[in-house]
Write a structure and sequence with these properties.
By secondary structure, the protein is mainly β. Helix content is about 0%, strand content about 50%. A hairpin with a 5-residue loop joins β12 and β13 (about 180).
Length: about 475
Amino acid sequence: MNRRLPLTAIGLTVLLAINGCGGGGGSTTELPVELAPPPVEKATVTVLLTDAPSDHFDEINVTISSIQLLGGSDPQTLFEGSETVDLLQLENFSDLFVVADDIDAGTYDKIRLRISDLELVGLDEDGNVVESIHPSLPANGKIDLNPRGSFEVAGGDHLMLQLDMDARRSIHMTGNGRYRFRPVVFVDVLSDRFDGKNVRINGEITAIDEANSTMEVCQQRPSSSSDDNALMDGRTAHCVTVVIDDETGIFDSDGNAAAFVDLQVGDQVTVIGRFAMDDEFGDDGRLFVADVVTIGPPGTFERLEGTVLSAVDADNRFDFLIAPGQGFADGSTISVELQPGTHVVDDDGEPVGADQIQPDIIALVEGVVALSGDSTDTLRAAYVVLDLMSEDGMGDDDEIMLSGEVLTVDVANAGLTLSTDDGDRCVRLDDDTGIFEITVGDETSLTNSIELGDVIAGSPADVYGTEDIDGCIDASVIIVSPPA
């Protein structure tokens, strides 16, 4: 990516010669006139939300009131208002939360996130709320996030921030039966390439460019919004240019394969894909390369989780057992139909072949249910996500948590020793292990992303990971608090 440096305002002084008249003589007076400097080019910052999987609740609704960048200049507000999103809708996708234009160029080192409410919801098999819990928010919901090092926002550039609000590791039950919220948020600063999850955008087509196979899609609210009228409240739209290519699957509101010519201005659509950054489409962060486009308002295409019962047959179908709690009777099965344009991906969003659809694989299928009166119902699939790493559930990797105190830190061998109530345990780290130091105060909750060398012996720590056959923990996330 060819990054453009911020423009420097240069004041110019121009001497104007003014001829005076009178008295039979002439004189010249030079007056300095300072011209206004050229305008400083602003930047655009896009915020994406995602979440790690969690199976403790049916909804985790977070109400966000503001997001700001903090650094050397004045705070830059990316979002201000009130938006409630269900984090559990973001297990396999990122959500376009806000596109903020007119952001001052500069160096920033902190993201301030304000949350006004957190609701943990339990539903019965019919989708009725049977439990609603509102844990108290630390520091009145003000959360400061420090990524590893500062980041540059250059004039004219388009920067993306992906906030992974890790609900599974943020919400814990205390000894007295209450839930505690300690914010664990991964921050990915995406400037040179897009390597986050696939992004989902619900919106309306406002323009179509047939010659270039593109369309403008404007989203009023995030796709994970808890508001059923997400597109109807007149909020400021976040618009992106969607690129349709030969790999894009397009589906009508009945779930059947369609074509670019079937798209119309005014259609409500859901688009799944990735922002174009440093690829064949250039580095314009407003360009969005679509894998799948589905026509219809939110809810037209259902997302059903379950278990694959058979491989794909000659008719491009496989049998699927729908998991409980999704509006179907326990033990319901359905025939999933793959169509031209159906995308099959793993849980990182990477394309895989249909041959990876095998019995006992946990999957998420997005499509339209076609009811049949005398045979098995059909789910016309547009998008299939396979959990190829787990046998127990979408994203469930048998992760355990250990709590204790850090005894020793071994940077050279990427490990540490944790003292727990059940004895000392060895912990191993790799390049993907996230380490956070979280400090909760009365005014602010501060989450620092740190290196292993920053961990201090004597610090209380929670270690999340999987247990190896030698008894050591291969850590995915480590959360430390300052020593007492």
